[in-house]
């Protein structure tokens, strides 16, 4: 083989466009993720869930109430310019000590790793972003905390922030059909009917449902509600093997859209 051919092959090898390191599978398999979070992947199905929500790395995405950042670690690795990730967390000036501690802990996490350098943090009850500026809003296992006026406010602000055609992805512990509001608040499980009703109330249209996060072993009637199950184990060692065998909650996975004509 002559020098000219060797040179051509060398250049071809080094200048072939490579697959982005920010593909979804790569983001999920990132070594930067917290090991105890990775251990929950088999229960939470992040690849299937984010694929169902049609999340792409160039989107502008809001994650509502990210808690300790389980999904934030994946999204921060996956979403990059021209896209961006906005984490809507508790108000740092809240009167509730838990909210303040949780926000402070999240901010500390964001500062400790360079993968979070482009994550914008806003308050959960704020406008989230400029009107009609966001491609997707996501929430994971949070609706039970918002039942009542808070849910209306957050859904309304999410709708306003989304572009026409923007997506609203919801994962939530699923209550038995017909469960009362009192039962939902006490158990931490929410009916699909209620989630869909509130979403439609604020202008969203239901696009699709998925059973990605379903768990038929979950009866939803546990002594300490959904927090009886892993990873919380509210009963500690009492019947722990039983609840470990059930696994995480039965969850609805719903995809809504802001109408194009909105």
Could you outline the blueprint of secondary structure elements for this entry?
Blueprint: H1 3-15, H2 24-28, H3 35-38, H4 41-44, H5 46-52, E1 60-64, H6 70-78, E2 84-89, H7 97-112, E3 120-123, E4 134-140, H8 143-146, H9 149-161, E5 162-173, H10 181-187, H11 192-201, E6 205-210, H12 240-246, E7 251-257
Parallel strand pairs: 1-2, 1-4, 2-3, 4-5
Antiparallel strand pairs: 5-7, 6-7
Describe the structure.
This protein has 262 residues and is an alpha/beta fold. The protein has one domain: 3-Layer(aba) Sandwich (Rossmann fold). It is 38% helix and 18% strand. It has a seven-stranded mixed sheet. The N and C termini lie far apart (63 Å). The N terminus is likely disordered.
How do you describe this structure in short?
By secondary structure, the protein is α/β, with parallel strands linked by helices. The chain is built from twelve helices and seven strands.
Average residue-wise pLDDT:
93
Q: Spell out the helices and strands N to C.
A: HHHHHEHEHEEHHEHHEHE
Helix content: 25-40%
DSSP strand content: 15-25%
The shape is globular
CATH superfamily: Vaccinia Virus protein VP39
Largest sheet: 7 strands, mixed
Structural class: alpha/beta
Class, according to the CATH hierarchy? Alpha Beta
Biggest sheet, spatial arrangement of strands = 3-2-1-4-5-7-6
Identify the CATH architecture: 3-Layer(aba) Sandwich
């Amino acid at each position: 083989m002559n020098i000219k051919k060797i040179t051509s092959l060398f250049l071809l090898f080094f200048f072939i466009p490579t697959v982005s390191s920010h593909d979804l599978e790569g983001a999920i398999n990132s070594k930067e993720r917290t090991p105890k979070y990775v251990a929950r992947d088999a229960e939470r199905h992040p690849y299937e869930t984010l694929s169902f929500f049609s999340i792409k790395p160039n989107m502008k995405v809001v994650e509502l109430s990210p808690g300790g950042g389980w999904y934030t670690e994946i999204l921060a690795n996956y979403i990059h310019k021209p896209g961006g990730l906005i984490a809507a967390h508790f108000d740092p000036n809240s009167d509730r000590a838990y909210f303040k501690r949780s926000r402070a802990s999240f901010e500390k996490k964001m500062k400790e790793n360079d993968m979070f350098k482009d994550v914008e943090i806003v308050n959960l009850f704020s406008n989230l972003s400029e009107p009609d500026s966001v491609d997707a809003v996501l929430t994971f296992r949070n609706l039970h905390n918002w039942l009542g006026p808070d849910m209306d406010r957050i859904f309304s602000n999410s709708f306003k922030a989304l572009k026409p055609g923007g997506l609203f992805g919801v994962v939530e512990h699923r209550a038995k059909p017909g469960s009362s509001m009192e039962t939902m608040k006490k158990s931490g499980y929410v009916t699909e009917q209620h989630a869909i009703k509130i979403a439609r109330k604020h202008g969203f249209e239901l696009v699709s449902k998925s059973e990605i996060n379903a768990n038929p072993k979950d009866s939803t009637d546990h002594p300490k509600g959904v927090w009886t199950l892993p990873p919380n184990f509210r009963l500690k060692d009492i019947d722990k093997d039983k609840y470990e065998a059930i696994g995480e909650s039965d969850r609805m996975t719903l995809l809504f859209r802001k109408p194009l004509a909105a």
